[in-house]
Each structure stands twice: as C-alpha cells, then as structure tokens.
Write a structure and sequence with these properties.
Elements: E1 13-15, H1 22-50, H2 55-82, E2 91-94, H3 95-105, H4 107-113, E3 116-121, E4 125-128, H5 130-147, E5 151-159, E6 164-172, H6 181-185, H7 190-202, E7 205-211, E8 214-221, E9 224-225, H8 232-240, E10 248-252, H9 256-266, E11 272-276, H10 279-288, E12 293-297, H11 303-315, E13 320-325, E14 331-336, E15 339-345, H12 349-362
Parallel strand pairs: 3-5, 10-11, 10-12, 12-13, 13-15
Antiparallel strand pairs: 1-7, 2-4, 4-9, 5-6, 6-8, 7-8, 14-15
Helix pairs in contact: 1-2, 2-7, 3-5, 5-7, 9-12
C-alpha cells in the first residue's frame, strides 16, 4: 500500500479553525440541516398525497432525518468548543486501538455504504484527552465516509524525533476529469469544521492536501510515546489508566433521577455515553451501531426487552449488559437463559456501577 505523509508535503496547507467565522458556520449548519429536512418534507408530502411509501423511500426518509439531527449535534459540539468550556485531560491513550474500535462501531455503516477501509496502523500511544480524541476520530470518519467514492486509506505511523504519531486519511471523492474547485469546496462540511476545532482544542496540527479528485488529511500528535520507549511500569500505566476510556455505553433509563445517578457514576471514566428513555429509542439508536455495553433499568425489562437482548447477542455475542435493580445496594451476577450479566442496586449506582462495567467488559 502506498504511504503518504501529508504534513511533509510542500504543497500542503495547515488547517486552522479560525478560517471560518461564526456567521459562516451558522450559515453552513442551517444549509445542511435545511437541505436534509426539505428532502424529508418532500417525501412526507408524497406520502400524504398517495398514502403509500415503499421500503426504500421509508429508509431514505429516516436517513435524511438522521443526517439533519447529526448536523444539529455537530453544531452543538462546535458551540461548546468555541465557547472554551471544554476541560482537556492528559491521559495515555492507545491510538491504534481507539481507531480500530471506532471502525468496529461503524461496521454496519461501512458495509451498507460498500466502502473499503484499508488500515495500516502501527502501535502508538499518545498523551491526550480520551473522550475528545474519540470525538476527533468520529468526526474524521464522518467527513471521509460522506465523500469517499469507494475506498478510504487510514495510515498511522511514528516519525521524527522526538517521536510523533501521524494519522493520515486519504480517499477519492470525484473522478480526476470531473474534479474542480467546486468539488473540493464540497468537502468543507460541518464534520470537517468539527474535526478542525476538536484538533485545536487538543493541541494537534491538521494538514490537508487536495488535488485531482483526491483528499488527504494528516493529523500530527506531538505528545507521542511508543511502547518500545516505555519502561515496564510506564507501559503498565499506559494500559491501566482509565482502561475503558473511549468505550461506548448506551443507558436505557426512563426516570430522570436514575439517568442523573448513572451520569455521575460514569463521568470520571471518559466513556462515550448515550441516554435513551424508551425501548423504541434504544432500538433506533442501536440500529446505527452497537455499543460495548447496555445499562438498563430492570423496570424496563420484560418480554420485549428480552427479544431485543437476544437479537443483539446474536449479532454481537460480547455485548455486555448491566441491569439496574429497582432497589438495594447489591452488586451481583445473574444468569438468564445461559447468559450472565451484572446487576447493581439502584441505591449503589454511583459506588458500584463503574466496577460492574469494568467487570463485564473485562471478561468479554
């Protein structure tokens, strides 16, 4: 596989978030949301007129609404970054493992889009904020998935002294004979702006190089350690410091007070956490990609939940489940239909849920 280092290219340009002012970002956010909602509205109008919609049309309607929702979420994230309300932690993060995990979570999306993702990832441990770093990788994948024609090349290597990790992403977005300035400007989406601002918050350097229908972006990580350079104690610390950082957890809880307790319990663990309040919302979210663990209120259990559990385990046998019992302080392991899962009493969520989550994810 070809190897490129865009940051070393004489024709490349450093990308700074300040290149787009607030008014431009607001205008672009409005445009991206409005275009998706307009398309969805046309489908709804056609449905109202005919009273019929085929499966393909229904799927397209759902995707248009999801893309509008996702653009709105990116706008909220950009607002937080621009306001400077982000507290950046300094942790040791296995960057190659984080990349592979992010791709695993997007497996179904990759298969549906028929995109080939080629990976050449060396071992690299960086000092960064695990949660923000996962958000950075998600924005990079959002940006490249939206524009790649058929293939994305991800390359992670260590270069220079002192060592720094370089993460390169390359893809073709238009045939060479049809590429022009307009096709390159189409790459400047909210996902790219979010990527730029997240990198700036982390103190990383982005370098982008476009040409002949190809896009190439490189992210340089100045605070990099290789395992070969670590002492045994440093290597152990790198693997054991916040061992679940970057993992994705879905919390199914109907009551606000339970959600608040779970949020307080998981906040120090640098997890990616999504909250849903109904089984229907959980199904919709899980259809987009499977998490590492599902935390749920026992009161939302029952036959419908057990059918969902069976479907999820058939697709991903290592998916962890943690039940929040209605009362008590017990932390126990239960067994249902041959499948073991942890249970934490509602009165001990803050004290016991992190340990239960670590237990479940460590044994899978």
């Amino acid at each position: 596989m070809d190897r490129v280092v865009a940051a070393r290219s004489p024709n490349s340009a450093s990308v700074e978030p300040g290149a787009s002012d607030a008014a431009e970002l607001v205008g672009q956010l409005g445009s991206e949301v409005a275009s998706q909602l307009s398309a969805a509205l046309e489908r709804v109008a056609a449905l109202a007129e005919t009273g019929r919609i085929d499966p393909a049309g229904l799927r397209a309607l759902r995707e248009e609404i999801q893309r509008a929702r996702h653009a709105g979420i990116m706008g909220q994230q950009l607002a937080r970054l621009a306001a400077g309300r982000i507290r950046v932690a300094r942790e040791r993060v296995d960057l190659s493992a984080l990349l592979r995990e992010a791709l695993r979570l997007r497996r179904r999306e990759i298969e549906a889009a028929a995109i080939e993702v080629r990976q050449q990832l060396c071992a690299a441990t960086v000092v960064s904020d695990a949660t923000l770093l996962f958000a950075l990788v998600e924005a990079l994948l959002d940006w490249s998935f939206a524009h790649a024609v058929s293939r994305i090349d991800l390359d992670l290597q260590i270069q220079g002294w002192p060592a720094q990790a370089l993460l390169s992403c390359r893809y073709v977005h238009a045939p060479a004979d049809r590429a022009d300035a307009g096709s390159e400007r189409a790459l400047d989406t909210m996902a790219l702006h979010l990527l730029q601002h997240t990198a700036a918050a982390l103190g990383l350097t982005l370098t982008r190089q476009d040409g002949a229908g190809r896009a190439a972006l490189t992210i340089a990580f100045p605070h990099t350690l290789t395992l070969a350079e670590m002492t045994p104690s440093e290597e152990a610390q790198a693997h054991n410091s916040q061992p679940l950082a970057g993992r994705h957890v879905v919390v199914l809880a109907a009551r606000r007070e339970v959600r608040a307790l779970v949020r307080d319990a998981l906040q120090p663990m640098s997890l990616m956490v999504d909250f849903v309040t109904t089984l229907e919302q959980a199904r919709e979210l899980l259809a987009e990609g499977l998490p590492h663990a599902l935390v749920y209120e026992a009161t939302l259990g029952g036959d419908r939940f057990e059918r969902l559990r069976a479907e999820l385990l058939a697709e991903e046998p290592t998916l962890a489940f943690i039940q929040i019992a209605e009362q008590g302080k017990a932390f126990e392991v239960l067994n249902r239909d041959g499948h073991q899962f942890a249970s934490v009493g509602r009165d001990a969520i803050v004290e016991s849920l992190p340990a239960a989550l670590l237990f479940e994810l460590s044994r899978h």
